[in-house]
Amino acid sequence: MENLCVNGPLSGNVPETFPIVETTWESFKQMFPGSKIITTATGFSRPYGSYPYGDYKTNNNRLLFPVNNNDTRLPGKVRVLGLVEGTKSKAYILTAFSSNTSIINDSLNGVQIVLVGNNSRNFAAAFKRKATDGTMLTFQPVSGNEPAVMIGSDGTNYDLFGFGLDGPRKGQQLESLDQSYIAYWFAWGAFHPGTEVFGN
């Protein structure tokens, strides 16, 4: 996946991207209790509280569009955290994280990275381990100290967006990778042929 604009006056340009976190509303409220949600009063009559696609989440044979690069190493509807750094990509199955918040230290394209995730609470995120001053940090998971999800070897607690909440790096943010988002395996494999799979 080249991450290029393909139409219009910006065709061929690389768009600016922003890190995102996908999780359940329940988990997000626990971490950020003051959060607000966009209203469901949109002017349209829609069952916003119901999933509209039936068994789409679990039926590996049901897709909404054809896939050219069908990578069968994993079932199509397995959810992965996909990462891109430079010319390399890697996928991490969400079940690689335990039902408690856990940490994976790894590297991608020569860059030392940390992943924090929780399978039961449905979140995962990844960051570069090198701080802005060049210090290479190590991390441990944090539970019961919301919104902190991990603590660095510098004594700083970090949230799911990589923001330092306290300690020597309070207010600083860990650097994100070039791309990082959760996707179904069939989609990640199609956009990133030959991607590495963590643990395989």
Task: Summarize the structure in words.
Helix content is 7%, strand content 25%. It has a single domain, classed as Rieske Iron-sulfur Protein. It has 200 residues and is mainly β. The mean pLDDT is 92. The strands form three sheets. Strands 9-1-2-10 form a four-stranded mixed beta sheet. Strands 3-4-5 form a three-stranded antiparallel beta sheet, with no helix packed on it.
Please outline what is shown here.
This protein has 200 residues and is mainly beta.
CATH class: Mainly Beta
Unreliable stretches covering 5 or more consecutive residues: none
Count of the separate structural domains: 1
Give the N-to-C terminal Cα separation. Answer: 22 Å
Shape call: globular
Number of strands: 10
Helix content: under 10%
Q: Which topology does CATH recognise? A: Rieske Iron-sulfur Protein
User: Which structural class do you get from the secondary structure elements?
Assistant: mainly beta
Question: What does the average pLDDT come to?
Answer: 92
- Named at the architecture level, the CATH assignment is 3-layer Sandwich
